[in-house]
Task: structure prediction
Amino acid sequence: MSPPPPAPSTGAPPASTDSPPAWQVLDDLLLHHSGHHADDGALRFEGRTFTYGKLARRVERASARLWHEWGVRAGDRVAWLGLNHPDQLTLLFALARIGAMLVPLNFRLASAEWHAVLADCTPVALLHDAAWADAAQALAQAAGLPAHPIDALIATPAPGDAPVHAAPECPALLVYTSGTTGLPKGAVHTQANLLANMAAAAQVQALTGQDRVLTVLPLFHVGGLCIQTLPALYAGATVLLHARFDAGATLDAIGRERPTLTLHVPATMKGLIEHPGWATTDLSCLRAVWAGSSTLAVALVQAFLARGVPLCNVYGATETGPFSIALRPAQAASHAGSCGWPAPGVEVRLDGTRDGVGELLLRAPNVVRRYWPDVPAVDAEGWFHSGDLARQAADGSYTVVGRAKDMVISGGENIYPAEIEHLLAGHPAVADCAVLGLPDPQWGEKLVAVVVLKHQNGSLPASDGHEALLNWESVLTGFLRERLARYKLPRRWVFVEALPRTALGKVQKAVLARQLGPDPAP
Result:
């Protein structure tokens, strides 16, 4: 009989005890800020500033148009296809006011994937920006939907006010998972879920009305939308919104507009670090850079620490807000590689623990209860089973070691690819990497390392300082041998130009395994 699971951890170090406002719906947030500091900046985009008062007026006009002219009703879904845009946020708040929900489409998906999402959630309309107008019009026509440019949302006054159908349990946001383990599923975020996530995220990041938050990640994903952007609006801060990530534009914005916080993922961090402007940009305005990633390579953490900026981590999933476990600035250096402690209000436990590693289970007010239309997302006790494997340290912090489905069993030993990937990512010659297991008649599974090497004018840097090394497999094996047990060393090495990734940047290991196939004949 298995021992009982450890008591759920609600986290340390302690968070602030300040009570958040008693907001029940998204409209409460907007009405509060527009009433108390209407002239303060809410959003800044392409040289235009939208104050909280102006944002509230845009939401009022947009909700009227949605209701009276476009026939959107409580419970309806409205899809969005486009780059980041201020009125994507206007649309979210306007739909929430009338009890409807936003379905942001990932613009990086293929047309067939968009069609699958629309077929699943059956929206009543599709809104788009100018950059994606042609694709949106074609998509809407094929789906039999009306398509509207985002500029039409508030172009002219609509007749009358829209009725308010907002309630805490009203679904407000329908976000589809990336589908790394199967078909994408729509996570249903209620207004209560979103507000709970904003409160936790704002508290952990110590957001105030004086902050300027630089948003460059896509708002079609809960990372870009819910880790900092909505929490910044919750706190009355200003969001400096970019249409999309560009390393040069991001560094320029840091130098000119002096944001206090920003959010990145490993791919955009590498883009910043490798940009010519990285070394000369004054980063002193940033009290922290946050990362939306379950695991962070130590080399990335050190690159930011070397510039005097803590690189903090947030662990979560589309279904969990995603602000679930967080590494605060004070622990960024001492706990590099960890995802930190549970956010306020989040319960965490490890299930099926073996050798100190178990599956992360989370229960919290920001965790969705269902997938669209009515498929449970949590178990009978309200726990979300993440599929991620983690260890808990004596101080209560958690470190993710990989996906349960990624775990490799070779020669009877459990091996967690993330551990090996972190080390490889720290080698100066490695640009990208993935480690996975493939079937092997002798060992059950064989560990395979797939590596993208850095190219610099045709040459590669050497870990021991020499100009050239003849055998990269030998070099990297030796690098790992100094740091890992022998059974964790890859038995096959493959060097490629790029790794297959989802639109959200996750390595598609199933695709990679198919591409690799069996070992080549000797």
